[in-house]
Amino acid sequence: MMHSSNRTDTGLESALKPQVESFLKLVARAPRSLLMLDFDGTLAPFRRDRKNAAPYPGVVSILQEILSVGNTRVVIISGRDVTETVPLLSIKPHPEVWGLHGLQRLKADGSVELCEVDKSTIEALAAAEDWLRSENLLDTVELKTGSIAVHWRGLPESEAQAVRERVLLGWTGIAKRFGSDLMDFDGGVEIRSSKVNKGTAVRTILKEMDPNEPAAYLGDDNTDEDAFRAINGRGLSILARPEWRPTAARIWLRPPDELLDLLNGWLRACREHNEPSTR
Question: CA geometry: angle at 59 spanning 61 and 18, to 5°?
Fold first, then answer.
């Protein structure tokens, strides 16, 4: 069951269950629909070891069935490199996957597109890495094309806070100097290009779809806010996380149960569209 909130300051829509039901009726009537999903924290619970971040039980099989019905374009949009995300998904054949916050695109046919990283971002990342090396923090780092992330998930709270404060102190000046984004996420902080983000990916995908085709984006983190803003006014934005936080998303649900409810509802809508009596 999807939730509204008794809060008056959440910015979330009221009467969310009818809104979701109405949306799924559009999915059932439409010949084509679009389902965009973040991976970590949305489809998969956070793990201290990122290599073991398997999706919640049941998620893969439902997404596999939605893809098999054939009238929904399923797209995964993650901060990970696509070479990490695809094996963790375990969906065959794999759906379209965007990685590195929109810099990288793996199409369903297997072809890969990679945006060129601008010079200022390259210089910012070099400076950020040099600073981490000088502070002996490289063991906490994930180096990616277009970004560097420092992780502290699993550390004691006081130690994690100390790492965060050190990194922000060192990176804030670098981000300002080169015009880069400095973004908190669940369990870490990342310095990255300010020119490409998940919202960039969502806008690109939406342009490839008919404007009348129903579309939704599910995400959990601060890095998903660009995507929520990109889809608002065009489709359904859904915050999927155990606890509510201020967000541009219009709907909040708690994984895994409510996530599975939504995906099962989407699957039923797809199947309903293919039943002769509904045509």
Answer: 115
Q: State how far the Cα of 83 lies from the Cα of 98, in Å rounded to an integer.
A: 10
Q: Cα–Cα distance between 95 and 180 in angstroms, integer? A: 30
Q: Look up residue 216 and give its DSSP letter.
A: E
CA 47, 53, 59, 61 dihedral sign is negative
Report the C-alpha gap between 74 and 156 in whole angstroms: 37
Distance CA 227, CA 38 (A): 10
Report the C-alpha gap between 182 and 132 in whole angstroms. Answer: 15
Task: Select from 16, 40, 8 the least CA-distant residue to 249.
Answer: 16
- Give the DSSP per-residue string, 83-112: HHHHHHH--SS--EEEEGGGTEEE-TTS-E
Residue 11 within any structural domain of the chain: no
For every residue of 119-146, which 3-state class applies, written as one string? HHHHHHHHHHHHHHHHCCCHHHEEEECC
| pLDDT, the chain, mean | 90
For residue 182, the enclosing domain spans: 119-192
What is the CATH number for 235?
3.40.50.1000
What are the C-alpha distances in Å from 71 to residues 55, 110, 122, 264? Answer: 23, 20, 40, 15
235 within 8 A of 34, measured Cβ to Cβ: yes
Query: Do 84 and 108 belong together in one domain?
Result: yes
Any bridge partners for residue 149, and if so which? Answer: 142, 190
CA–CA distance, 232 with 23 (Å, rounded to integer): 14
pLDDT tens readout for residues 68-118: 999 999 999 999 999 999 999 999 999 999 999 999 999 989 999 999 999
